[in-house]
Amino acid sequence: MYERMSCSYLLCTILLFVAVLLAVTVTGTILFMNHYQAPPMSDGLPHISTNQDEANALVTVERGDGSRINIFIDPNCPDYNSNFMRLEGVQTSLLHSLTDHDSDLKSVKGQDRALLVSLAEEVAKLSAHAGQLKMDYESLRRGQSSLGQDLNTLQTEQGRLIQLLSDSQINMVKVVNSVSDALNAMQKENVGLKARVKADLQRAPVRGARFKGCSNGSRPRDCGDLYASGQREDGIYSVFPIHHPSGFQVYCDMTTDGGGWTVIQRREDGSVNFFRGWESYREGFGKITGEHWLGLKQIHALSIQGNYELRIDLEDFENNTAYAQYGTFGVGLFSVDADDDGYPLTVGDYSGNAGDSLLKHNGMKFTTKDKDNDHSENNCASFYHGAWWYRNCHTSNLNGQYLRGQHTSYADGIEWSSWTGWQYSLKFSEIKIRPTRDPENK
Ligand SMILES: [Ca+2]
């Protein structure tokens, strides 16, 4: 609608412009022609009048020949003013619009400003928050570093504790070891002590009588008594142990290492068979002057009288001699019935030059070929042709076969392994016991 209207206005405007231009041109032409007198025409000068006869004609040109040219203006063309008015209205409205827009812009700016202000406030808040966060972070970092320090301290403490624990463990092990050593020593000592106490108890009633008896002719309990009574000759004597009042004959060695030794076994020529059973070893066999075994019953009766020491003299077939001595000796010292108990051996405190081949037999019961008291699944006496305090089986076998020196069989001769090994059967062996002498009575 507006489009069509504006188009009409445009057309009208152009037409008006063309009409005005035409009028001006015509007027100009007429003025020019009036100024410059044309040659006289028979028709006379054209006459131009404005709107004389013709209705609505703007200008009327009357030629000399009487013809007229009317220049019309469209009576329907709308009024300019109204257009201008409209235009002014439009301009005013535009101005209003612009003003409004400006004010809108201003209000927008205000809004923006408010937004900016609020944004700034938000930014400030955020910045403050960030500052707080940073402070928190810093304090956390400080906390972390202090935690790290605490951790380091704890680790150091832990290391120190581990070290302490390790040290205390080492110390504990040392203490345990030393306690264990002390216990072992006490146990060893205890064995000897028990033997001595028991022997002391058993012989206590006659201890006073030993020396008194010897001096006034009372019966000797062993070769020690005989030696103490002045006997100095090796040979056969009768002894009367406390628990064997009927007495028995023994061979006394009155010359070796101070004398007073009661011989309990001798090997010297192989004349006596030593491969015998339990009863023979309990009661004794052989000749007292030659090869013999005194008997476990007799050895027991002697050794329980007091503290006894043991000496073993040895000789090989090259006439080399050696000896082994033990400060403690006894059989069946702790037995209620020694025979039932197997006459267990108590031996300790080695000295000598033959080496120790008996301590490993300490605590072992006596085994014969017909009575197996050893720790072997076999019978060691049968296996090694002897009779001894076998364990599993032996380091010495002095009741073995008389094999005369080197032999190819294994450990079944008269062996003292620490001196001549397990395949040398000795020429001579003598086992003897003597009551240990108090240092002041030696
Ligand atoms: Ca056995």
TrEMBL record:
Keywords: Calcium, Chitin-binding, Disulfide bond, Glycoprotein, Membrane, Metal-binding, Signal-anchor, Transmembrane, Transmembrane helix
Domain Fibrinogen C-terminal: 214-437
Domain of life: Eukaryota
SUPFAM superfamilies xrefs: Fibrinogen C-terminal domain-like
Record note on quaternary structure: Homotetramer; disulfide-linked.
NCBIfam families: GGGWT_bact
UniProt protein name: Fibrinogen C-terminal domain-containing protein
